[in-house]
Each structure stands twice: as structure tokens, then as C-alpha cells.
Amino acid sequence: MEALLSKIIEENRYLISKGKVADYIPALSKVNPNNIGICLMDTDGNIYKAGDYNVKFTIQSISKIMSLMLSLIDNGEESVFKKIDYEPTEEPFNTLFKLDFPHTVKPSNPMINSGAIVTTSLIKGKGQEKFSRLLEFIKMVTKNPNISYNEEVYLSEKETGHKNRAMAYLMRARGFITGDVEEILDVYFKQCSIEVTTLDIAKIGLFIANRCKLINQDTQISGDRVASIVTAIMATCGMYNFSGEYAATVGIPSKSGVGGGILGTIPYKMGIGIFSPALDQYGNSIVGYGIMKDLSRELNLNIF
Question: For binding substrate, which residues are annotated in this chain's numbering (predicted)?
């Protein structure tokens, strides 16, 4: 299996030149574009890895999966989806478009920035307690007590996050979020700056695949419904406004982040973690997409 993973990495390495590392967050522009890593974990406990699987990178929008799960655990489905919709969108992940339309009553879904900021606001706790609870949740799911956030990336995101700040204040004015906007944004910037490896995100993918049960334990953190919601939203919205084509060509519920990560989950079977920081026009890892297509085909992983 690991020989196959190494082969898939090499066959997709050429795509690095067709992508571009995120530079709108200055600290992200410093990452090595040549890093490529893969980790697969299945429900039988097997772990397969290749390439730069142990290189740390910031989780970015993959954190939206975890904040959604925690907000669902804290509030229940009905309360969360009164504030955010379930629907895919053809708009880019960082759009403000439609937020100020009079007929818009909530952001499209929790996987775009506006919806994710609302999701973060719904996590219980005051001030930094929201972030502490989210970080502890990620540590528990990954069984990695050493996970923390990258302060340089956090400060860079906070300093340059003008568009996120604009949409947050607009949503506060519209009543989509309540509370202190700067406190909520601070938690959001920090959660995006959490550092992980492909092993960590494969464990999160396996946790979802295993219906929110902890790895090697029978402890179920939440009901099956949370796993179903998260998996469905990943399948329809997790790759931004490329999600439809991705579902047709890959067929694995996934979530990307502009740090170069892609998390995949295959219900009852497997979690997948991929890292390669060069991005395509949609903000998804361009090499990661190529790898996921090959993995889906080689291992017959397409759930559709």
C-alpha cells in the first residue's frame, strides 16, 4: 500500500507548477511548495503513509468540520441550522456577496467563511474558552496532546483578515451572529492557525467515518446524526465552489484548507489526510485533488 501511495505522489508531483501557495495570508507564503504527504487510516487500525506525511501545516478551513461538530454537540441541529443553511453555493469561500441581500436570512453553509464564523460563534464559552474547548476537542479526537496553534500564522491572519472582519460585522448588523465580533474573530483566526499533520487529519476523517467514535475505543462522542450531517455537508460543500465536480470525479466526502490540506472520510471504512500547499483557483490543493482522484480510482473509494 505504501508503495502505491509513493507512486501516486510522484505521478502528481508535476501539478505543483500549476498551482500557487496562498500568499494573501503572508505567513502562509513561507511554506515549502514541494512538500507532499499522504496518510490513510482504516477502521481495522491500519495506518499507511508516504511522502512528507509528518510535516506540520496549519489546518485552516479543515477546522470548520470540528467547529461544526462542536457547535452541534453544544446546541443541537435545529438551533445551529436556524443560523446557517445546509446548501452548496457557486460563490467563492470568502465571498460577502448575498450577505446583505434583504431576502438572505443566513449564510449558505458552514464550510464557507461566513457560515464558519457563525458556527464558531455558536460554540459555548466566553472569550478564549471557545478556542480552548475546540482545541481540546481536536486533541481528543486525534489523540495528540501536543497540537497547538501557530502564533505567526494567527497574527498574520488577524492582521490581514479584513474581508472576514467585514463579513463578520455585516452579519452582526444583520443579526446572523450575536456577541463581541472581535472575540469571535479572534477565536476563528486561532482555530485556522492550529498546526496538524496528515496523520492528525486522517484521524479526524476516521473519527467521522467511525460515526464519531474515538479511535480504538467504543466511546461515542456524539450521535450518528452529527456524523451524517458533517459527512453530507463535506460531500456537497467541502471543496468550496468546486464541490460538485469534485463529488463527480472523486466521490469522497472531503474538506480542504488553504494551508494545503485535504481531509477525506469514507463512512465505516477510512480517514484520509493529504498535504500539498500549492492551490488551484478555488483554494484547494491542486496536487491533493490529483492524489484524491487516483486514490479513489485505485482503491475503489468513490461512495457514489
Answer: 61, 113, 157, 164, 188, 240, 258
Q: What is the pLDDT at residue 221? A: 78
Grid cell of 272 as nine digits: 484520509
Contact 196, 205 (CB under 8 A): no
**To 10 degrees, what angle do helices 181-192 and 162-174 make?**
140
| pLDDT tens digits along 225-247 | 999 999 999 999 999 999 999 99
67 assigned to active site: no
| pTM > 0.90 | yes
Assign domain 61-194 to its CATH superfamily.
DD-peptidase/beta-lactamase superfamily (3.40.710.10)
240 is catalytic: yes
Among candidate residues 196, 187, 210, the one with its CA nearest the CA of residue 134? 187
Among 21, 61, 71, 121, the one annotated catalytic: 61
163 close to 184: Cβ distance less than 8 angstroms: no
Locate the domains of the chain by residue range: 1-60+196-299, 61-194
Q: Do domains 1-60+196-299 and 61-194 have the same CATH topology?
A: yes
CATH top-level class for 1-60+196-299?
A: alpha beta
**Is 94 annotated among the ligand-binding residues?**
no
14 is in an annotated binding site: no
Q: Distance of CA 129 to CAs 60, 144, 193, Å?
A: 19, 20, 16
Quick one: which H or E segment has residue 12?
Answer: helix 2-12
Residue 61, marked binder: yes
What CA–CA distance (Å, rounded) separates 294 from 297? 5
Question: Of these residues, 258, 285, 287, 289, which one is catalytic?
Answer: 258
